[in-house]
Amino acid sequence: MSRDPNSGLHLPTANAPEGIASADQTAPALDNKSAASWAMLTVDRAMSALGTGPNGLSETEAAARLARYGLNSMPRARRRRWYLELTANFIHLFAMLLWVGAALAWIAGLPQLTWAIIAVILINGSFGYWQEYQAERAAEALEALLPREVRLRRDGRERLVEAANVAPGDLLILTEGEAVPADARIIASERLRVDASALTGESRPIPRYAAPAKTTDGPPVSLPNIVFAGTSVASGRGEAVVFATGGATEFGRIAALTQAQREQPSPLQRELGRVTRIVTLLAVFFGVGFFVIGRAAGGLSTVEAFLFAVGIIVANVPEGLLPTLTLSLAIGVRRMARQNALSSACRPSRRSAPLLSSSQTKPEH
Q1: Pick from 211, 242, 215, 216: which is nearest to 227 by CA?
Q2: For 179, which DSSP code?
Q3: Which residues pair with 276 in a beta bridge?
Q4: Could you give the domains of the chain?
Q5: What is the pLDDT of residue 310?
Q6: Where are the alpha helices (DSSP H) in 197-300?
Q7: For 161-206, how does the pLDDT look when each residue is reduced to its tens digit (9 = 90+)?
Q8: Cα pseudo-dihedral 113, 118, 122, 124, rounded to 10
Q9: Residues 50/184, Cβ–Cβ less than 8 Å
Q10: Dist. CA 217–CA 101, nearest whole Å
């Protein structure tokens, strides 16, 4: 071990075990090693396996690794085009029922009712699209937890670089208040504590050390010598060697899971579909029934009986249900937001939140 003149921290020597890549050699094959695998290694072996040393990577080697492993940025799911998302809010089952109701009202000679129903469809569809657009941006807000620039050592000199340009093998300089841009193995620490609340929900800072982990039981965030992207330094200082960036980090896996999850109809959506089918059947049943009654017992002509039946069908279309439902959910979400209880799954788009959980650390006195 040697003492770095710039940081004052004790760092491993540059000697690498035989057969292990050193800095400026070909980028190491990380083989998707888990954080637990890196935690069990000694500092020297971890740095050697990552092909780096106390001086960090060279700019040339860092560029080569960025080309191989990609930029340090969160994965983004491919979305449908905006006009397809917008159209979907006007052609779902209940909206189709309203469109049919508007057409029948026009046929029955009720233009005011026709335009009123169309206005309901357009307003509700536009409002629903806007709310879903705002909710989708919440997933992108994960990137706000990652820093724009980070301090690291390359070619033996400390420098600021964009977080997206951090590569496996880079040596991060961790100081109080700094955000961690990637998953990294601690190689030196002085009273280092990190805030991992973004991953654990616990606000109490967690101590971090450079010594190899004695056990890897428990979740990855419990590993005592690993810092993760999305966390930050609460106090102390240290250095860490990056072993995972971008989508390969624990934070990236969380972001990928939230984006790759297939959308399933929520209980409310299924119930709304069931109500729509029942209302449609009842409306048609009453329309046909009154058409027959009007012709057989009411002495109405075919045209008069048809218009009467259309009026019955339109009267049974609950055009006010959809905007009432959407506005009620929107108000509920805003109330939750004011109480700091907003979840990306709780949005006024008739979706479901299969599990809501919270964790709060008892404050220290």
Answers
A1: 242
A2: B
A3: none
A4: 2-14+26-72+147-253 (2.70.150.10), 82-140+264-338 (no CATH)
A5: 80
A6: 197-200, 250-260, 267-296
A7: 998 899 999 999 999 988 899 999 999 999 999 998 877 778 789 9
A8: 50
A9: no
A10: 61
